[in-house]
Write a structure and sequence with these properties.
With about 475 residues, the chain is mainly beta. It has 4 domains: about 110 residues, Immunoglobulins (Immunoglobulin-like, Sandwich), CATH 2.60.40; about 100 residues, Immunoglobulin-like, CATH 2.60.40.10; about 90 residues, Sandwich (Immunoglobulin-like); about 120 residues, Immunoglobulin-like. About 10% of the residues lie in helices and about 55% in strands. The chain contains 2 helices and 36 strands. Strands 1-3-8-6-5 form a 5-stranded antiparallel β-sheet, with no helix packed on it. Strands 2-10-9-4-7 form a 5-stranded mixed β-sheet, with no helix packed on it. The two termini are about 20 Å apart.
Length: about 475
């Protein structure tokens, strides 16, 4: 009697054989070796570095490992591994970088981080410890810089607030604070003062600058230096603001209307010079939610678009307007693409969930030659719990036509057999299935007569108690054709 085993069963046997070898291999050497390029490092505040971790797989087969570092953050030091999952061939090694970054205000400390490498298929694991000494460059630093806004018009006031922090608990320091406002390479304004910063204190300094009526438009850079008593720069920050070239046309010169539909909304802006002199050119800006970026179209393309947080700003350049001359700008935000995207994402999410996060049952049957009386046919039924929850009251049922009978000799769990005139029913009570658990049952059948054509075996069914109560899934039927 010849037993036909499918590719899935062969794979199971190979894995079982490899698992049997593991205790013998582990007796002589570690299954996984983890070696750092250095186990002690010094990290200055505000800087980053990395350590290379060499992982060697001494197992007699290719394996996949999880890679983690604990803790991920500690006392102002953050850790980021280059990879979280790595596959290594047998008797081979790979290198993974672990990046360490210290915040500018991190305290001096001695920290320990533990690296753990663990097989996803066996109990093999290993690890190592890395000691990190954080060293401060200076106790005083620029902890924050802010401005009252980022875009200005002529004659508006710019306010800069600078925060200086002393993290030392006992010593006061007097440092020099320099601030430059520059337009290109030209210094527009300069501030210079000496600041006393007491222990564990944060000092806030405000400086103001008013843009002139005829100040040149463009980007203005604010550069800040903090210097120690020897004139060395210990901390620096930079931020930029923009001065717009605008002309203030009275609000009644501008007409703006918006119409909203199901698939889009349209805004029309009319700018008219009702004066008796030529209006100089300026920029018109419109703010929209940043989600509108891919759905925006305009009758006159904007010359500039800028993302500011959750909004996007479109700017149009308005040229010289003669008296009585008007310009019309119409823009539209279409929701059609958004609706289509949501529908596609919803459909993909639904079908992905149905395929990935449900229980499945697969019926496999391989047979060669003519379908003869009393010639055994091997059948396997594979059950997988692909959900993230435990399934209860799991019942597997398989039905056979009356032209075949069950050989009551089972290699796996024996089912309950129910015979009737219409055929035979096999029922396995599998109890519970844990998340991602797989079960395989096998049995043999043989025809009660020679079958000249093909033979179709009905689908198997799997019923269980799930999140929605009693649920049932089915396999595909299996068609046997003489070869």
């Amino acid at each position: 009697m010849k037993l036909l085993i499918g590719g899935g069963m062969k794979k199971v046997l190979l894995i079982m054989f490899a698992l049997l070898l593991i205790p013998f291999l582990a007796y002589g050497q570690k299954l996984v070796e983890v070696t750092p390029s250095q186990d002690v490092l010094t990290l200055s505040t505000g800087e980053s570095t990395y350590v290379e971790i060499i992982i060697k797989n001494n197992q007699p087969f290719t394996d996949t490992f999880s890679f983690s570092v604990f803790p991920s953050t500690s006392s102002g030091v953050s850790v980021t591994p280059e990879k979280n999952v790595i596959t290594i061939e047998r008797n081979s090694e790979q290198t993974v970088r672990v990046y360490f970054s210290a915040q500018i205000d991190a305290p001096e400390n001695l920290l320990k981080f533990s690296v753990l490498v663990k097989s996803l298929t066996t109990d093999a694991s290993s690890g190592c410890d890395i000691i990190v000494f954080t060293k401060r460059k200076t106790p005083i630093y620029i902890s924050n810089i802010s401005v009252n806004k980022y875009t200005f018009e002529p004659e508006e006031k710019l306010t800069i607030e600078i925060s200086l922090t002393n993290i030392y608990p006992k010593t006061s320091y007097t440092y020099e604070l320099q601030m430059f406002i520059k337009y290109g390479n030209n210094i527009v304004q300069e501030f210079d003062e000496h600041i006393l910063i007491r222990p564990l204190e944060t000092v806030k300094i405000k400086n103001e600058y008013k843009f002139g009526k005829y100040e040149r438009p463009g980007q203005y850079n604010i550069i800040i230096y903090l210097k120690d008593e020897n004139g060395n720069i210990v901390s620096s920050r930079e931020i930029s603001v923009t001065l717009l070239p605008v002309v203030k046309i009275p609000s009644n010169y501008t007409e703006k209307t918006t119409s909203i539909g199901f698939l889009s909304f349209t805004t029309t802006i009319v700018i008219k010079n009702d004066g008796n002199t030529v209006a100089p050119p300026f920029y018109l800006s419109e703010e929209l939610p940043v989600i509108a970026k891919g759905m925006f179209s305009a009758s006159i393309p904007p010359v500039k678009e800028e993302v500011r947080g959750s909004t996007i700003v479109y700017s149009w350049y308005i040229p010289y307007l003669a008296p009585g001359e008007a310009i019309v700008i119409k823009y539209q935000v279409s929701f059609l693409g958004l609706w289509l995207t949501l529908i596609i994402i919803g459909a993909l999410t639904y079908f992905s969930y149905r395929y990935t996060f449900t229980a499945t049952v697969v019926k496999i049957c391989k047979y060669k030659g003519a379908i003869k009386k009393d010639k055994e046919i091997f059948v396997a039924v594979e059950v997988k719990n692909k959900t993230v929850r435990e399934l209860n009251d799991v019942i597997l049922t398989d039905r056979l036509p009356a032209v075949v009978q069950v050989v009551e000799k089972f290699d796996t769990l024996q089912p309950k057999i129910r015979k009737s005139k219409g055929g035979t029913e096999l029922v396995w009570n599998l109890g519970k299935l844990k998340p991602r658990e797989e079960r395989v049952v096998t049995y043999r059948i043989k025809p009660v007569m020679d079958i000249a054509g093909s033979l179709r075996l009905p689908a198997a069914s799997l019923s269980y108690t799930g999140k929605k109560g009693l649920e049932t899934v089915f396999s595909k039927s299996v068609l046997l054709q003489p070869k």
